[in-house]
């Protein structure tokens, strides 16, 4: 069985939804940008050799419907012969694609695969444009949690795992501090800037004016926040609860892409891989406490890959909410110093289906810069699941 | 200048302070785009100050903008860069700082930019219009006058119109027409005397109240208990009003009176009380400072006690003897009882009324054309139920004059001023022919400007003649009448327009009569709100008896009357102002058209009392959502409508009511409440002239069905889990969803109004049987406030 080598991993900056730099940028364009850069950074690779482009997207409809993977691949200039498939497991979609791409290589079915993720929460809201619940959800109490918003599940986790408001505020504050330090320290080497061209009418000339803006930095982190300011915010999901907008992940737009190849291709093209993908696990938990999904997925993936928890140098734990992040860290006993050293989704944003690819790109570049060995990307998933994948720098 | 009408295509407001910005906001409600000017900023954007004022309009309560969207029609400008833009403005109102020198330099600066037909006016409340006219460039003088709005300008009906000797009379007529018809205001023409009319009398009253309260040793809380609704004035009474206005402002106004009114016989008494100075010194300036005469301590509101110099618990109770006197219905008898001065409270009340009457009579010739202007100004500018002369007249003109004279003779008034001679020569201030003009020594008739022909039923003062039309049919609940023979008018007789069996019967009678012999039917209340809803008390009593059949019959009867109106052979118009809630709104929703005063507050609020709209309101919303989205997806609109009913939202204006679907796109919004009836007649006539056809009956729509209900429940379950709603709210919300979506049936199944009405009715009855709903109804009847249980 061949290992699956990650030879390129890039992402767009993550912009704030609705008012951010990507508010008018389509998800297929963000995806094409990531795909183009990911491929361009593998010297000597003929794009025609890509076996498949697997793209994660959590709300694959409207601008990101119509099999956004195939559209993004064509827009990126990939030849017609390269196919594309969109996969959806909500917030883990972008990690799921890496697992699926790696599997094809490990099975010997493919030599070159692309795994990616894209999401614009500006254009396609969470839950999509049209929500239509199954009436059976309310037939008995068993499945009512399918109807819960994510914020309610975070409140339930906070309550059950006894995560205090103060701890959540502190966690959120630290996420921003770490992200700002990382931006200032130039740590986000996986970002490939995106030039947004906006066109507006110019009544003075009667012409259409083009304005170019280069987006090169994540927009989410706030320099002006403080634990005191966070402490004053009102809870949004539960009048008697503890979760605020600031201790929840931000809604965002962004994309990420990774190129995975077999050992044969590494040798043939004399590539310097960033990492090897070691393995992936996913597990189910009750929908009403979906945030604790990683509690099941992490031990499972460690057992499967034979990597011990102590071997992990860097953990990208998606900060859907401070409450679930802390519950997971405490239960699985993750070393807080190893978790999200560059900040997480509370500061940097969480473009749902793109997040897995974005975190993986952030991780493999980080492992390279810091010369560390094992890293993990893990996240909770709506309706009650958790996913985790292990990466090893080579 | 046009001869018949002032056409304002664009307006400018100079000065973006509290008044200026809010005047701009109200102009946008009248469909006029506004340039709002203030000083330039050193840094960019240069019109930052005006822009900040526009942004602030979105936060102010009560809302100055009739709809948030209107903010976009106010363009921030500055006096340095944008003066050339003034040439596009037809109406320019100045509302900058009250300093003659600053106003003068601004007037000189803007003069060259104002076009030859534009009107230039000032909103000053403190400076003389004549003195200001001296510094107005010559070319503008004849089009210059005072146009004095009251705060908050959207909600206060009064605008004082003050000419200077050089103002063209035609200008005043055109402005009066514009302010009335376009801005919906009540115009009172004033003389150019200090503080004009409303503030002259209002501030005198405030001063006199403070003076006599101190003299009689009455607590401020007691004074407020005595000078609010007990004597026909707003709840803010005296000292709460002073806190709202600001104690520093109050002191300033009293100082201005002291400085300006040196010839006033009351002048020597115009001194601010000592405690006022002390509070101001301590920074207790009123509401804006968090403390004034009253101070909120935790949940308790305490009142300042000048005796101790500290705050104490409030006590609004009155002794029984005083309460008994205040309860006397006959105004003459009541005033006579007060004048006996048996208690400090009655002596106080007599003194403030005596001084008010005395003051107004003494100054009438100087400050107003006639008694009408003073009484209207106090009603519209200070929210009094009746003006001073009306109160006097109602209590018996001669009897009160004698009582006042007796006090003057006994030297009890503290001033050397006699009652003017005319007082003894007339029988009252107002009569069928008009109001007494002391200046002219004759009765002054109502102004005959064309704009007043549009007010079919204007405010009439006590003593004035009123024309109440021809009664066609009258019961305890409803009056059917006509003004012009062609249109039948139905007016609900209860104070709040409450709907009960009698109203439903009356409505059927109205439809019978209208179909038989009229062009159409207008539903309009002469006084008070359109309708606060169905008669909860009657329903609660029936439920108490376990008589659900009669509740079902009542609901069904109302639904059927509403449907009958919708499909009648003649058009119907609901003329709405003020509240149109619950059943009242459902009634309006079934008319062919609605004309609504801008200040209409519409909502299906049944959830607050544990019920759901069962007069066809939900069915109408479902039908309309379907019609409004015929080419697309009905769901987003259904969801919006669902939320507004489940949460009992009330529109903050007629414009917001359009957004909520309670008014339809073709419905008309009227700025002046007294033009409603005129507009309603116009709509009936236009519908008739186009050959009115009712909508086709028995239309079906695809139901949102079980999936719709489930999706609405998803919203509810998150609010329930998040402790934003109670279990009973969930219950009510689920039933509203069920009735709106056509029940637990397959999505897309065709349903008609009758099926939806059946669901409304059955869920209404099932809610009625629930103890928690009964608790809500009982609480509302007892306290007037909703209960969350």
UniProtKB/TrEMBL annotation, chain A:
CDD domains (UniProt xref): thiolase (cd00751)
Xref: Pfam families: Thiolase_C (PF02803), Thiolase_N (PF00108)
CC annotations in GO: cytoplasm
SUPFAM superfamilies according to UniProt: Thiolase-like
BP GO terms, sorted: fatty acid beta-oxidation; phenylacetate catabolic process
Residues of the active site: 91 (acyl-thioester intermediate), 350 (proton acceptor), 380 (proton acceptor)
Biological pathway: Lipid metabolism
EC id: 2.3.1.16
Domain of life: Bacteria
Top EC category: transferase
Domain Thiolase N-terminal: start-end pairs: 5-263
Domain Thiolase C-terminal, chain residue ranges per copy: 271-393
PROSITE patterns tied to this protein: THIOLASE_1, THIOLASE_2, THIOLASE_3
Keywords annotated in UniProt: Acyltransferase, Transferase
One Gene Ontology molecular-function label: acetyl-CoA C-acyltransferase activity
Protein family: Belongs to the thiolase-like superfamily. Thiolase family.
Name listed for the protein in its UniProt record: acetyl-CoA C-acyltransferase
Protein species of origin: Wenzhouxiangella limi
Automatic annotation (TrEMBL), chain B:
GO biological process assignments: fatty acid beta-oxidation
Span of domain 3-hydroxyacyl-CoA dehydrogenase NAD binding: 11-193
Keywords for the protein's UniProt record, in alphabetical order: Fatty acid metabolism, Lipid degradation, Lipid metabolism, NAD, Oxidoreductase
Matching InterPro entries: 3-OHacyl-CoA_DH_NAD-bd, 3HC_DH_C, 6-PGluconate_DH-like_C_sf, ClpP/crotonase-like_dom_sf, Enoyl-CoA_hydra/iso, NAD(P)-bd_dom_sf
Residue span, 3-hydroxyacyl-CoA dehydrogenase C-terminal domain: 196-294
Pfam families: 3HCDH (PF00725), 3HCDH_N (PF02737), ECH_1 (PF00378)
GO MF annotations, alphabetized: (3S)-3-hydroxyacyl-CoA dehydrogenase (NAD+) activity; NAD+ binding
Keyword Oxidoreductase on entry: yes
Pathway listed: Lipid metabolism; fatty acid beta-oxidation
Catalytic activity, reaction form: a (3S)-3-hydroxyacyl-CoA + NAD(+) = a 3-oxoacyl-CoA + NADH + H(+)
The keyword Metal-binding is annotated on this UniProt entry: no
Name of the featured protein: 3-hydroxyacyl-CoA dehydrogenase/enoyl-CoA hydratase family protein
């Amino acid at each position: 069985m061949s290992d699956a080598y990650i030879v390129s991993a890039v992402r767009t900056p993550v912009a704030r939804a609705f008012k951010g730099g990507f508010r008018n940028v389509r998800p297929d364009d963000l995806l094409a940008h990531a795909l183009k850069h990911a491929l361009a950074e593998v010297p000597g690779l003929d794009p025609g050799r890509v076996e498949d482009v697997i793209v994660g997207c959590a709300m694959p409809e409207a601008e990101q419907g119509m099999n956004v993977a195939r559209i993004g691949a064509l827009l990126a200039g990939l030849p017609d012969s390269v196919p594309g498939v969109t996969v959806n497991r909500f917030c883990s979609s972008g990690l799921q694609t890496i697992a699926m791409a790696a599997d094809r290589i490990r099975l010997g079915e493919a030599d070159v695969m692309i795994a990616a993720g894209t999401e614009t929460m500006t254009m396609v809201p969470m839950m999509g444009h049209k929500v239509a619940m199954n009436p059976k959800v309310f037939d008995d109490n068993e499945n009512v949690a399918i109807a819960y918003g994510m914020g309610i599940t975070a409140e339930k986790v906070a309550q059950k795992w006894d995560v205090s408001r103060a701890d959540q505020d502190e966690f959120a504050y630290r996420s921003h501090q770490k992200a700002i330090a990382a931006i200032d320290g130039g740590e986000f080497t996986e970002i490939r800037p995106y030039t947004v061209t906006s066109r507006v009418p110019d009544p003075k000339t009667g012409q259409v004016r083009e304005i170019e803006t280069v987006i090169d930095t994540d927009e989410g982190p706030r320099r002006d926040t403080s634990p005191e300011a966070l402490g004053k915010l009102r809870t949004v999901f539960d009048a008697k609860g503890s979760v605020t907008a600031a201790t929840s992940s931000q809604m965002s737009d962004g994309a990420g892409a990774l190129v995975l190849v077999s050992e044969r291709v590494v040798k043939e093209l004399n590539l310097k891989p960033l990492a090897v993908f070691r393995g992936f696990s996913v597990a189910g938990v009750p929908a009403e406490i979906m945030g604790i999904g990683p509690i099941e997925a992490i031990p499972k993936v460690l057992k499967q890959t034979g990597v011990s928890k102590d071997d992990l140098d860097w953990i990208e734990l998606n900060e859907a909410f401070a409450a679930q992040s802390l519950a997971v860290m405490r239960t699985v006993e993750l070393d807080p110093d190893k978790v999200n050293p560059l900040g997480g989704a509370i500061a940097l944003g969480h473009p749902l289906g793109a997040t897995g690819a974005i975190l993986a790109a952030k991780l493999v570049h980080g492992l390279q810069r810091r010369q560390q060995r094992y890293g993990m990307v893990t996240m909770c998933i709506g309706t009650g699941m958790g996913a985790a994948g292990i990466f090893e720098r080579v | 200048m046009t001869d018949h009408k002032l056409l304002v295509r664009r307006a400018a407001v100079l000065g973006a302070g509290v008044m200026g910005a809010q005047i701009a906001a109200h102009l946008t409600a009248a469909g006029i785009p506004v340039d709002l000017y203030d000083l330039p900023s050193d840094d960019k954007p240069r019109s930052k100050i005006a822009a900040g004022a526009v942004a602030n309009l979105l936060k102010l309560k009560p809302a100055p903008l009739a709809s948030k969207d209107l903010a976009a029609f106010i363009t921030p400008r500055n006096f340095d860069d944008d003066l050339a833009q003034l040439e596009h403005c037809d109406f320019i109102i100045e509302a900058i700082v009250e300093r003659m020198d600053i106003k003068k330099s601004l007037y000189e600066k803007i003069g060259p930019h104002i076009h030859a037909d534009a009107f230039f006016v000032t909103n000053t409340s403190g400076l003389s219009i004549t003195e200001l006219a001296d510094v107005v460039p010559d070319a503008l003088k004849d089009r210059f006058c005072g146009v004095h709005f009251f705060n908050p300008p959207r909600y206060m009906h009064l605008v004082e119109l003050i000419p200077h000797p050089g103002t063209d009379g035609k200008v005043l007529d055109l402005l009066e027409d514009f302010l009335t018809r376009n801005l919906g205001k009540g115009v009172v023409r004033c003389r150019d005397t200090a503080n004009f009319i409303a503030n002259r009398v209002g501030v005198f009253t405030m001063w006199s109240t403070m003076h006599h309260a101190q003299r009689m040793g009455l607590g401020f809380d007691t004074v407020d208990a005595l000078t609010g609704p007990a004597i026909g004035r707003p709840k803010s009474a005296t000292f709460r009003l002073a806190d709202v206005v600001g104690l520093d402002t109050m002191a300033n106004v009293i100082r201005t009176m002291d400085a300006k009114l040196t010839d006033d016989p009351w002048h020597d008494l115009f001194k601010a009380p000592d405690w006022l100075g002390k509070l101001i010194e301590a920074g207790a300036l009123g509401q804006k400072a968090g403390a004034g005469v009253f101070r909120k301590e935790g949940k308790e509101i305490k009142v300042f006690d000048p005796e101790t110099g500290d705050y104490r618990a409030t006590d609004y109770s009155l002794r029984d003897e005083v309460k008994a006197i205040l309860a006397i219905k006959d105004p003459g008898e009541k005033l006579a009882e007060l004048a006996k001065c048996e208690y400090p409270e009655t002596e106080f009340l007599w003194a403030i009324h005596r001084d008010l009457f005395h003051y107004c009579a003494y100054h009438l010739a100087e400050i107003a054309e006639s008694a009408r202007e003073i009484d209207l100004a106090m009603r519209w500018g200070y929210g009094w139920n009746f003006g001073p002369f009306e109160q006097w007249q109602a209590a018996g003109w001669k009897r009160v004059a004698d009582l006042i004279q007796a006090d003057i003779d006994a030297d009890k008034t503290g001033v050397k001023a006699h009652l003017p001679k005319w007082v003894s020569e007339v029988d009252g201030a107002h009569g069928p022919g008009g109001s007494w003009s002391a200046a002219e020594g004759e009765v002054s008739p109502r102004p005959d400007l064309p704009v007043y022909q549009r007010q079919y039923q204007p405010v009439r003062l006590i003593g004035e003649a009123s024309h109440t039309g021809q009664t066609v049919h009258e019961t305890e609940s409803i009056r059917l009448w006509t003004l012009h023979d062609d249109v039948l008018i139905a007016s609900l007789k209860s104070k709040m327009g409450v709907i009960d069996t009698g109203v439903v019967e009356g409505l059927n009678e109205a439809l019978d009569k209208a179909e038989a012999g009229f062009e159409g039917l207008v539903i309009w209340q002469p006084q008070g709100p359109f309708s606060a809803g169905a008669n909860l008390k009657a329903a609660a009593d029936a439920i108490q008896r376990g008589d659900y059949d009669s509740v079902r019959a009542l609901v069904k009867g109302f639904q059927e009357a509403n449907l009958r109106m919708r499909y009648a052979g003649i058009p119907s118009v609901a003329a709405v102002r003020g509240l149109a809630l619950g059943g009242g709104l459902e009634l309006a929703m079934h008319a062919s058209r609605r004309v609504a005063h801008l200040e209409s507050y519409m909502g299906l609020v049944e959830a607050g009392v544990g019920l759901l709209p069962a007069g066809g309101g939900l069915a109408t919303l479902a039908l309309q959502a379907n019609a409004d989205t015929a080419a697309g997806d009905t769901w987003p609109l259904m969801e919006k409508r669902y939320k507004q009913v489940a949460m009992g939202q009330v529109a903050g204006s007629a414009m917001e009511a359009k957004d909520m679907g309670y008014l339809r796109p073709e419905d008309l919004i009227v700025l002046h409440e007294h033009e409603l009836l005129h507009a309603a007649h116009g709509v009936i006539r236009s519908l008739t002239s186009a050959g009115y056809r009712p909508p086709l009956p028995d239309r079906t729509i695809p139901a949102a069905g079980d999936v719709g209900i489930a999706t609405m429940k998803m919203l509810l379950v998150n609010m329930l889990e998040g402790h934003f709603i109670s279990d009973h709210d969930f219950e009510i919300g689920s039933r509203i969803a069920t009735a709106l979506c056509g029940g637990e049936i397959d999505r897309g199944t065709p349903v008609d109004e009758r099926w939806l009405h059946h669901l409304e009715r059955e869920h209404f009855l099932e809610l009625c049987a629930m103890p928690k709903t009964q608790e809500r109804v009982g609480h509302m009847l007892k306290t007037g406030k909703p209960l969350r249980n």
